[in-house]
Structure formats: structure tokens, C-alpha cells
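Hi L.,

As promised, Alpha-tubulin suppressor-like RCC1 family protein:
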Amino acid sequence: MRWKIYITLSVYIILLPSLAMSRTTDAMILSTKIASGGMGQTNSVDTGITIENGDLWIWGFRGSGQQGNGSNEPSSSAPARVDYFVRNNINIVQATAGIYHIIALDEQGNVWGWGQNGYYHAGGGVCTEGHVKSPCLVLKDKNIVRVDAGEYVSYALSADGDVYTWGHGPYGQLGNGLKVSKSAVYKIPRSDFNGEAVVLLGAAYEGGYAITQSGGVYAWGDDEDNAFGYERSSAHEYVLKPLLLTNLAVDGSEITYMCGGQPFTNYLSSSGDVYGMGGNFSLGIGQKTGKTAGPALITTDIASMYCRYSGSIALTNDGTLLTWGFASSAFNIYGIIPTQREYYDVITKIDGGKEHFIYWTENGKAYGVGYGAGHKFSQSSNNNVEFPGKELTFLLDEMKKTYGNNYIPGQGL
């Protein structure tokens, strides 16, 4: 067991040739080698998700069609790849998820969605059934470079700098100026971003973020507890269209990653500083009550960061793992201040969910920490797991059956 990890950073960079300023768009890459600027955000509650060898693996709760094979699967059944992608030789390069739906980006820049779809958050209005049980092609030939998701909403960013939204929108999550229960795919007009292309995309639990070519920072959705950096008299302010954020500690051009949870916003600067706004109990600033509009400096010397529902995870430049957030969480994966955690071996990849995360190590093992419901960490138990985590042998066994006994999982896409 080690108290620190030493990570080979593998930056997943998308070049935007049509933009004057090149910026990485990997704000929240899920399931890749640890990447500067973000490790991957998903809000899945009971379902495990990872990308391995270009395949998307699913396990745990699959009662809303999450397996993507045309039917529901018992939570205790073996982990499996999404067969549609395997049969059609489609490689997945990024995935994200809401509570019970999954969004995947393939290497051709196409976006797929499946799972629970009552608000069109999986199928984007292309597939309209309540549960989409096979991958639905939501965006084709749009050259998408990044996908993100909130609770019941999905987002995508194209190489040309356009932002697409679909799903649930009663709190302004769609950025379309309306409060609507459900929506098909909507492209936010450039005029809402001062006529500029977007180069970085992020998601909160009930909203989204975008940073433009010139460094303008925008947010939309539920501005709960001053999460967008403005003093509000009410607990919730529903921002229906992209709002320019000016009360920030750094210029938007210096932000490499931006994300949020419930109710907070975090962002990581190019110098490794993490700032936060919103409910104090989620910010790791030593306070369990109150709210903060002016950006609070949470921690420094950070290489990568990942927002969760009520807290965050970060890796320092020397490989130390920190967590902070809702201190009374039953899952013991946060901390009232940034807290150093114990875990095994050298971490190579991290996947996450609403109240859990999974880390992969250099020797090909995977460990789960946090909320255990849905048999995510064990095929025979729903128990929660504390640090340093529980080894997911059942998942590794299935991967070795597929790729061979000498295959070492968790070493990248």
C-alpha cells in the first residue's frame, strides 16, 4: 500500500484547426490514462463504466438498458462489452453518463446514447422510447470532440466550437432560454457566446459550462448557493441561457478544466490552482455551512481534477490523491478540507460515478471506493467501500477472458 502515487501523464488533446487559438477540449475525459486537465466525470449511481482497448465495458445495475445489448441485465450478471460497438468495429474514445443513461463518443466523432430516456437525455429525440436498450446514433458527422452529462441532460462540443444540448431542462440545463421537461438536440447559437467558438466544455449536476476562444467563461442551469460566482438572495437562480461569469480568480484562457456538482463550481488553472464557488460544504474550505460567491482557493499544485456530486477528487503534480467535499457523506470519500488518501500501487486510470470511483493500477488491477449499490464492487454484495478500496477481480477476470491471460487492463484506451 502506498500513500502517494506517481503518474505518467498522458494528455488527451483535441486540436481545433478552425480556431485561432488551440486549446485542449478534454475537460472531463472518462476512462483514459490520467490526463492533465481532467480525469473524467459521470453521474451514474449504480452502474460501472470503463473504456478498455477501445471497448466500452458495463457492469452493475443495467435495469434501464445500460448494457446496450437490447435488453435489461441483472446487476449480478458478469461485466460485458457493449456488443453493438464490437460487432461493428466501432472504437469508443470517450464516455460519460447521467444517473441512468450513457453517452459515448466514437473515434469518428459520432455520439451515441442509450439507457433511461424519459427526457430524451439518452436518445436526443432521435430515439424516443422510454428506455433505449441499444446504442442510438444521436449526432452523426458533426465532428464531436467531447461529451459531458449532468443528471438527466447531455452535452457535446464539436471541433468547430459548437455546443449541443439535449434532455431535461426545467432549471435551464439546456441553455435554450426555456424551462422544458424534455428536448431533442439543440445547438446553442454562437450569439449566446458573444459570437465566438467554444473551446472547452464542462458539466455540473444541473447545468453546463463553456469557455470561448477569447477566454470568456459561461455557465447555465441551476445557480444554486452562488455556484456561478454571483451573490443571490435565493437558494436557486435558474439561468436559462449562457451567462458570462466575471467574478473569477483567473482569466478564462488560463482555465484548463471546469466542472460542478450540487451545489458548486470548481475550476483548475494552468498553474495548478483549484478555485471553487457555491455551497461551502462541497468546497473543502473547512466549513460545513454557508455559501461562497467570491472564488475560494481550495488547493494548489494540482495536475488533474474531477468533480463529483457533492465533492471533488484531485491529483497533485507529485501524484498524491486528494478528496474534499460533503464531510458528512456516508460513503467516506470526501473531506471537509483536501484530504490525502491511501490506495494501492501506481494509478494509471480513474473512472467515476455520482458517489463512487474506480482506480486502475500499473499492475493491471482495479479498485472501487464509495457507494457500492448495484453490485459495482462485488457480484454478491452492495456494501459501501472505504479507502484504499476493494479489488474488482470479477471485472478483471472477464477482461482477461476477452483479451487473453497476459493482457494488462487499465493502461489506457
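Residues 47-254+347-403 form a domain with the Methylamine Dehydrogenase; Chain H fold (CATH 2.130.10.30).

Thanks again for sending the construct details.

K.
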